[in-house]
Amino acid sequence: MACPPLDVLCIDDESLLRAYLTDASPLRGNLPQAVLFPSDAAEVAKVIRWANKEKVAVYPYGGGSSLVGSPLPFDGIVVDTSLLLDLEVFEKDKLVLAGAGWRLSELNHVLRRYGLWFPVDPGSVEWATVGGVVATNAGGIRAVKYGLTSDHVRALEFVTPVGEVVWSGAWAKKSSTWLRVHQLLVGSEGTLGIVTKALLTLSRVPERREAVLLLFEEAEEMGEAVLDILELAPSALEFMDPKTVRAVNSRTDMSLKMPEKYLLLVEFDDERSSEKTKLILDKYEGIKEDPETLWKYRKLAGPSLTLVKGSRSDWDVAVPVSLLPEAIKFVYENARDWEVAVFGHAGDGNLHVNLLHPPGEEWVRKAIEKAKEIICEMSKRYKATVSGEHGIGLLKLALLGCEVDEPALELWKAIKKALDPNLILNPGKKIPL
After folding, report:
1. Where a domain ends, among 143, 177, 205?
2. What is the pLDDT of residues 346-372, one digit of tens each?
3. Together in a domain, 9 and 112
4. In this predicted model, what pLDDT tens digit does every residue of 105-125 receive, in sequence order?
């Protein structure tokens, strides 16, 4: 293992390289030859040009919060984007030009000085990066009102798989000029280019937020309430099943305990918030709760379920919202031989189907087989998409055929080969070759 002969910050000590073997998925990579820390797009381009010349694979790595193994290396070198920290805030236009290395929590800390925020709010907001959420088209808790990352990307600076620095997109709110190559990068998981900067649209920090917790005995009742509440334009509308609630309640560091029922966690952040919370509390069983307390509880769902058996695989299938109760019931009926828990984003039909299992490659293999069986059938019955927000990475590669037909996959492969003729950029992820 050795750093390449480039004037770019690099580490090749095995004890340090081990930090890049894992992300938030149950998968594990192999030791890379080295990890490089470019400070700008020119240095990224220098690394990519060298890698093409030497035919060395390159794995972009952001915050390491992927649940599907997107950044894990299996040979070659890692490009760590944590030093890409340029930042310009355009307060009047509610825009920010942010380097790919900014963690969302830190970015929003800065933006709040201007009364602004970037409202994409995944569970990993504390360590997810700008480059990472662009690469996966992340959503999160507030997607029901504020949309996905793609809804906020106005332009990107990125380095192509052959080492060219490209800007794509307009500063103006409307433009028919550009071939929207930057949107092709959104959700491509580092296979078509490495994002170095993103021009993102922002929102004003809400002046008023109110939240309620609603309780239901059955998924069907909860589903009817979801459709009802969507008419009131919530800023967040989340659900947790009884098994997930039990897992969070069992944590010794959590003073708040919830009834082990189906829970809907609802937030409003507009001028009618008080009126809306009263309307739904008059109609459904529930309580008013502090928003921060409620979201702290909700964001412990995934980590708490991991503790049940030591590991889990999270399958973020999404269905049309009206089919949410049927989809939940289908999961339970078809995963009887597994310990399974479901939570997610009720407002946009995004289920997190958690198969709980001990650590180990054999258990991950079994989980992939079970998930493929369930999700392929859900795609047929409920118009399900394989991934609502986590991406495909390595974990879900075997499931792509459940949703994406062969002509579409061939088109993906053609695009990949055209942009990355040496197939060096994040090979083995997203696009089956």
Report:
1. 205
2. 999 999 999 999 999 999 999 999 999
3. yes
4. 999 999 999 999 999 999 889
